[in-house]
Design brief:
By secondary structure, this protein is α+β, with helices and mostly antiparallel strands. Among the domains are: about 160 residues, Beta Polymerase, domain 2; about 55 residues, no CATH class; about 50 residues, no CATH class. The protein is about 50% helix and about 10% strand. It has 23 helices and nine strands. The strands form two sheets. Strands 3-4-5-2-1-8-9 form a seven-stranded mixed beta sheet. The protein has a two-stranded antiparallel ribbon with strand order 6-7. The longest helix is centred in the last third of the chain and has 16 residues. The N and C termini lie far apart (about 75 Å). About 35% of the residues are buried.
Length: about 425
C-alpha cells in the first residue's frame, strides 16, 4: 500500500521481478563493464503501486554498442532493435528486456525525435511523458525520483512532465495516453492542465495512424475507469475526432455496469461496439479508421442489429434460432448489447435468464446432408442446395423438434415436389 501522504519513494528491495535471476543478470552484465543501469517507467510505477510487473525496461549510461558488447560478454543475447534511438533487446534465459541508453531530445518531429545520448538521469526523465513514469530503480531496489513524480503517484494524479502542450506536440498519441493512464492509474477528475492541453492540441489527433489509435483506445476502454474517461473525452469533443463516428457513452456505461454486475471480464471490442456502433456503416468507418480486419468489422457490426427474439419478453424459440445460427459468443454479445440498450437493471431475472440460455440449451446438429438429398433422388446442382436450405429452415421453424426420421420424410416430400 502507498502511504497516505507523499514522501520519498520506498525501496523495492525484495521485489520478485527485481530479484529474478534474469533481471539481475542484465544489471550485472552492465555493471561489470562499469556502466550504471536502472529499471525505469512502468515496472517501477506498477511495483510502487502494488501491481503485477510484466515487462521490465532498463535505462543505462552505456551506449548501444557498449550494451551489446557487455551483455554478450556475460553470455546473454542481444538484438539491435533500435540502435539509432539507443535501444537494444537483451535476452536472458528467454526473458526479454528493452535496454535503452539515457537520452535527451534534441529535436522532435511529432512521433519521432532526434536524440542525443547523455549520462544525466534527470535529462532522460524530462523527455518522458508523465511524472509517475519517470521513476528509476537500481538493482538493489533504490528508487530514483529526479522529477518528484512519486507524490503524483501517491495522489493518483497523471500529470505531464513540464509544459503539457510541449509534451503533446512531441507525440500526439500522448493525448490518448493521458486519458488511458488516467483511467488505469488516476483518481478523481483528470489533471486540469493536462486536460486543457489535450483539448488545445486536439487537431493533432488527425495525424495519428489507425494502428496506434486502435491500440490505445482498446486499452482505454477496458481500463478500470475506462467508460468514465471515455465520457470525459466525449464531453470535451475529443472522442468523435478519434473514432470518426458519433459516440454513445451512455450505452458504454450501461454495458460496463452489466459486466461488473455479472462478474464478466471487460471486452474491449464489445465496449467499442457499444460506444461507437449505431448502424452498420459505423462499423465500416471504424474498420477504415482503426484498421480492423473484416472479421473484427463483422463483430462490431452485430451491435447495430435489432433482433427482437433476444429480448426476454419474446418467446424462447426465437432466441434459440439466433443461438443456433450465430453461435454462443455472438449470442452473448448481442444479448448484452440489447440488455444495455433496454435500460433494464443489471439484476433483471428475465435478462439474466436469456443470457444463460447457452447453459441450458445446446444447439443440435442438423442431421441431414447433401448425400441424403441425393439419395432422395435429387441430382447434384443448385436445386440440391435449395432443398437442403429449405429443409433446415423447416426444421428450425419447428424449434428443432423434428428428428432424423421426420426430416427424411419431409425431404422425400420436397424431392417429389422438385
Amino acid at each position: 500500500m502507498l502511504p497516505v501522504a507523499p514522501s520519498a519513494p520506498p525501496r523495492l528491495s525484495g521485489a520478485r521481478w527485481l530479484e529474478r535471476a534474469e533481471t539481475q543478470a542484465v544489471f550485472a552484465a552492465l555493471a561489470a563493464q562499469g556502466f550504471a543501469a536502472r529499471a525505469v517507467g512502468g515496472a517501477v510505477r506498477d511495483a510502487l503501486m502494488g501491481r503485477t510487473v510484466v515487462d521490465v525496461d532498463i535505462a543505462t549510461t552505456a551506449h548501444p554498442e557498449e550494451v551489446m558488447r557487455a551483455v554478450r560478454a556475460a553470455g546473454l543475447g542481444a538484438v539491435p532493435t533500435g540502435m539509432a534511438h539507443g535501444t537494444v533487446t537483451v535476452h536472458a534465459n528467454h526473458v526479454s528486456y528493452e535496454v535503452t541508453t539515457l537520452r535527451e531530445d534534441v529535436e522532435t518531429h511529432g512521433r519521432h525525435a532526434t536524440v542525443a545520448f547523455t549520462g544525466d538521469w534527470a535529462a532522460d526523465a524530462r523527455r518522458r511523458d508523465f511524472t509517475m513514469n519517470a521513476l528509476y530503480c537500481s538493482a538493489e531496489g533504490e528508487v530514483l525520483d529526479p522529477l518528484e513524480g512519486y507524490p503524483d503517484l501517491v495522489a493518483r494524479r497523471v500529470r505531464f512532465i513540464g509544459e503539457a502542450r510541449a509534451r503533446i506536440r512531441e507525440d500526439y498519441l500522448r493525448i490518448l495516453r493521458f486519458f488511458r493512464q488516467s483511467a488505469d492509474y488516476g483518481e478523481g477528475p483528470p489533471d486540469a492542465e493536462g486536460l486543457a492541453a489535450c483539448v488545445a492540441e486536439r487537431a493533432g489527433l488527425a495525424l495519428l495512424s489507425g494502428e496506434r489509435v486502435r491500440q490505445e483506445m482498446l486499452r482505454l476502454l477496458v481500463a478500470t475507469r475506462g467508460p468514465e474517461l471515455a465520457r470525459a473525452m466525449f464531453d470535451h469533443g475529443l472522442i468523435t475526432l478519434v473514432l470518426g463516428v458519433a459516440p454513445r457513452p451512455t450505452l458504454l456505461e450501461a454495458l460496463a455496469r452489466l459486466e461488473t454486475a455479472l462478474g464478466s471480464t471487460p471486452d474491449a471490442m464489445l465496449r467499442l461496439a457499444a460506444l461507437a456502433v449505431e448502424v452498420v456503416d459505423d462499423a465500416e468507418r471504424l474498420r477504415h479508421r482503426l484498421r480492423f480486419s473484416n472479421d473484427e468489422c463483422a463483430r462490431l457490426a452485430r451491435a447495430a442489429e435489432r433482433t427482437p427474439g433476444l429480448d426476454p419478453a419474446a418467446p424462447e424459440p426465437a432466441a434459440r434460432t439466433y443461438l443456433y445460427a450465430e453461435g454462443e459468443a455472438a449470442f452473448r454479445e448481442r444479448v448484452l448489447i440489447a440488455w444495455a440498450r433496454s435500460g433494464d437493471a443489471p439484476d433483471s431475472p428475465a435478462w439474466r435468464g436469456r443470457l444463460a440460455l447457452p447453459e441450458r440449451w445446446q444447439p443440435p446438429r442438423f442431421p441431414i446432408g447433401g448425400a441424403d438429398v441425393m439419395a432422395a433422388g435429387v441430382s447434384a446442382g443448385p436445386r440440391l442446395g435449395e432443398i437442403l436450405r429449405a429443409l433446415e429452415a423447416w426444421w428450425i421453424d419447428g424449434d428443432f423438434s423434428a428428428d432424423a426420421a421426420a426430416l427424411r420424410t419431409k425431404l422425400a416430400e420436397m424431392a417429389t415436389q422438385a
